[in-house]
Structure formats: C-alpha cells, structure tokens
Specification:
Blueprint (H helix, E strand, L loop, with lengths): L1 H25 L2 H22 L5 H11 L2 H17 L6 H17 L1 H8 L6 H22 L8 H16 L3 H33 L7 E7 L4 E7 L2 E6 L2 E5 L4 H15 L3 E5 L5 H5 L6 E6 L2 H10 L10 E6 L2 H7 L4 E6 L7 H4 L4 H8 L2 E10 L13 H11 L2 E7 L4 E7 L6 H10 L5 E3 L2 H8 L11 H6 L1
Parallel strand pairs: 5-6, 5-8, 6-7, 8-9
Antiparallel strand pairs: 1-2, 2-3, 3-4, 9-11, 10-11, 10-12
C-alpha cells in the first residue's frame, strides 16, 4: 500500500504545480482547472484499461515519462508563448489534455496491480483507496510548506516520489539507475532553463521586442508573482497578467486614483489591492490617511523590493491590512471618502467576483456621505460597442449607485467609472481638470449615455459572472 500512498502524493503535487503554472500561462485558472479534472478522470479510465496489457518493459517506459515533467514544463512555456504570440493559444488545451491524461493513466495502472498483489478480502479495496487518499492529503501538506519559495521546489520533490514508487514496484537496479540519471538530468536542465523559459514565454506572449529579465518569481497561496525588467522598465505580473508597469501604467493610475483624489481631497481613502503601491503614492498630496487592503503579502514584498520609488513618503499616514476585501469591509467601522478598486482584471473568479453589484453594494456601505467608488472596466467602452467584460461591470455600478461619471481614456486602453449616490463633483469638473493636466485623449460620457450603455447589459453579480466567462 505504500506505493499507492506515494501515487496519491505525487498526483496531488504534479496537479497543483501544473494548475499554478498553466493558469499563469493562460490567465484562466477556472478553465485550466476544468481541463485538469477532465484529464484526471480520462487518465484514470485509460489507466485501468492499460493494466490488462501491462508489461515490465511498458512499466519502465512509463516511469521514464513520469520522471521528466521539468523539461516538459520548459517546452510548454516556450510553446505557449509562441502560440499566444501567434493568436493560437487555444491549441494549448488539447496538448495539456493529452499530457496530463498520460500522467494520470500511468499512475492509474498501479491501483489494480497493487490490489491484485495484496491478499484479497472484503477490505482490500478500501485499504487501497484509503492509502491513495492519505497520500493525496500528504501531497497537499507538502505543497503548503513550499508556498513562497523561489521558483517551484515542488517540481523537484516530485521526481523523488517517482523513484521511490519505481523502487517499491520492484524495477531492476539497472533500470532504477537509469531513472535516477534521467531524473538528475531533468532537474539540472530545469535549473538551467527555468528562468530563461519564463523570460521567453513573456517575450512572445506579450509581444516584447527583446527577451526581458526575470527579477522575481514566487508562488503564494493565491497566485504566481513575477517581476520583470523590460528595457528600463520594471513590470509586475500576477498569474501571468501584467498588473503594473513603471511607464505604461502611469496614465492608468492617474485616472483610477489621482484624478478622483484631486477632485475630492479626501480625508480617508481605502485602496483595495496593492500592486506597486503607486496608487498610494499618487495621492500623497491630496489624502490625509490611506488604508491599503491586500490579500497576498507576497505582492507587498515584491512592491517594497522593486517598486519603492512608487511608494508614498513617510509624511503620509498609510497602513497596510492583510485581509480579504469582503471580510475587511464587513467588519471595519471606518467610513471612507474614496474607495479605489485597484485589483487585477476580472479574468478569474478570484477577482471577477469583486467587479459585481454584490461587492459594489458592500463597498457602498463603507462610503462616507458623498463618498466615491473609483473602478476601471478592463476594456475601453464606446457608445454601442461590444465589450462583454466591461458592459456587465458598468451595469452593476449603475444598479448600485444613483450617480455615475464614466470616461474612456484612449491613452490607457481602458474606461473608468466614478460612482456615488451623491457625487461631490460634476462632469464639468472632470473635464476642466483633464484640460489643466493637458489630457485630451479621452471620451467623457454624458449622463444619459452612461445609463443607456449600462442598460444594454445584465449587471455583473455572483449569479451572473458573464464578464469572467467572456474572457475565457
């Protein structure tokens, strides 16, 4: 039964590793999870059928395949980068289905083999499944201990499990030596190519002229956090999605945080999400007190390490709270003049549920009198245009608040909404401030036009997540 314990542990480890790696490559955690589950059950079915014709030579070939996930991952990164750059990223899914299915199938062969080798009684199947289940839980525990380390050390733990399974399965010493050499070469090649393969992926997937330099790469309990040097510019990526760029996102932060702060001159500001802390630095001259709520401490660590120039000075009263945004809003007694939703785009359930009427209503409950919620819509909204992500979000804001001011900033490729039951500024104030700042490349919606655009879509809510599925 120790073989099945190790099988359960290894399956948990490899699936967790690939879920994190592949979801950051494709930006679609939920869709990757669906393919992982499909590959798992498909592999189990194929494995049980393979057992009928299983031989020792085939078993050794299977172990060879199981020991090389590290080079395979390098190839996947490079391949997916080229596919995304060519607009063919959907070809990624059948490849993953076959690869993950083959891994699961090879492990599935061992279950009936071990059961047949044990004395047959009423409890033999129960013991077999219990051993595999305990191994799965052990694998999850090991994964938890590895959170926050550079790269993905779990991928080096996994081949050790394969070697132990092969040893207990009774492969010959010669075959075990071959497996050990293959696993060692696999680990060495991954150590040499791990950083380069991620840099190559980002270069082609994001259309960069030259290969960037990977400065920081770690996995937290919530996401993968990468920092890249692209020319003279540092960029922060969360699960493969660009969240901050020292140069390109400067305008974005102006519209999301500085513009409403200039208009309101708030005493108390709440920023949901931290990123580079640039939103905090933007309002140093306009806000007395700023609270940042961030779920992931690793993001803040990367921010302090690589984006310190974006941070506010010590003159500003700024506190960081590590908490879930919903939990914080439900339990805080403080009211805020301005709440800024500065989180990654609504491409996954984790962030997409914050761009809903349910969450907007929760944020509204913590706004002071004439307080404002500032959000971005992830897409540029134009009259009568097609924007399946931005439309439901705009409609949710319209459903929650009595007054909206919306603008599309073409220099950011995004649209922004300032929402309140009683806005402390008017559309003409926004227009005048933009003119003073020399910003003329935007479309400021008339009030009736905002309502008309919002009315075209069903509001985003916990029961309507079409804005998330539209991307995937």
């Amino acid at each position: 039964m120790r073989i099945l314990f190790l099988v359960g542990a290894n399956l948990s480890i490899i699936h967790l590793c690939l879920l994190r790696e592949l979801s950051s490559l494709q930006y679609c955690t939920e869709l990757v999870l669906v393919f992982l589950l499909t590959a798992f059950f498909l592999g189990q079915t194929v494995g049980f059928r393979l057992y009928r014709n299983w031989t020792r030579p085939r078993a050794f070939a299977g172990y060879l395949w199981l020991t090389v996930p590290l080079p395979v991952l390098v190839l996947l990164r490079v391949g997916v980068g080229h596919l995304k750059g060519a607009g063919l990223s959907n070809l990624f899914y059948p490849v993953i289905l076959v690869y993950l299915g083959s891994i699961t199938a090879l492990y599935a062969v061992l279950l009936p083999e071990v059961v047949d080798a044990e004395p047959r009684d009423e409890g033999s199947f129960a013991r077999a499944y219990s051993s595999e289940l305990l191994g799965s839980l052990f694998g999850l525990g090991v994964a938890g201990l590895m959170i926050g380390y550079d790269g993905n050390p779990l991928l080096f733990v996994y081949p050790v499990g394969v070697l132990l399974i092969a040893y207990f399965h009774g492969v010959s010493r010669k075959q075990l030596a071959v497996l050990l050499v293959v696993a060692s070469l696999s680990g060495i090649s991954f150590s040499l190519l791990n950083k380069t393969s991620m840099e190559t992926y980002y270069q082609y997937a994001h259309g960069l002229e030259n290969r960037p330099q990977l400065l920081f790469a770690r996995n937290s309990a919530y996401q993968r956090v990468d920092v890249l040097q692209v020319g003279g510019d540092k960029r922060l990526f969360l699960n493969g999605v660009e969240f901050f760029s020292e140069g390109q996102l400067d305008d974005f932060n102006y519209y999301l945080s500085e513009l409403p702060a200039r208009l309101i001159r708030p005493r108390s500001v709440l920023i949901i999400g931290s990123g580079s802390m640039s939103a905090v630095g933007r309002m140093e001259s306009f806000a007395r007190r700023v609270t940042t709520v961030e779920l992931d401490p690793l993001v803040v660590q990367a921010s302090f390490q690589f984006f310190s120039d974006e941070h506010p000075s010590s003159r500003q009263e700024h506190r960081i709270v590590y908490d879930d945004a919903r939990h914080f809003l439900r339990h805080t007694k403080e009211e805020f003049d301005l709440i800024i939703l500065d989180i990654p785009t609504a491409f996954t359930l984790q962030t997409g549920t914050l761009f809903t009427s349910d969450f907007f209503q929760l944020a509204k409950s913590r706004l002071a009198h004439r307080g404002v919620l500032s959000i971005y819509l992830t897409q540029p909204v134009k009259p009568n245009g097609r924007y399946e992500v931005a439309g439901p979000i705009l409609s949710a804001a319209d459903e929650t608040f009595q007054e909206l001011i919306a603008l599309t900033a073409f220099d950011t490729g995004n649209s922004f909404v300032y929402a309140s039951d009683s806005l402390p500024f008017q559309r003409s104030d926004v227009d005048r401030l933009l003119g003073r700042a020399g910003r003329f490349n935007q479309y400021l919606f008339e009030e009736d036009a905002v309502r008309r655009e919002a009315g075209r879509w069903e509001p985003a809510s916990l029961t309507n997540l079409s804005h998330v599925w539209a991307h995937q």
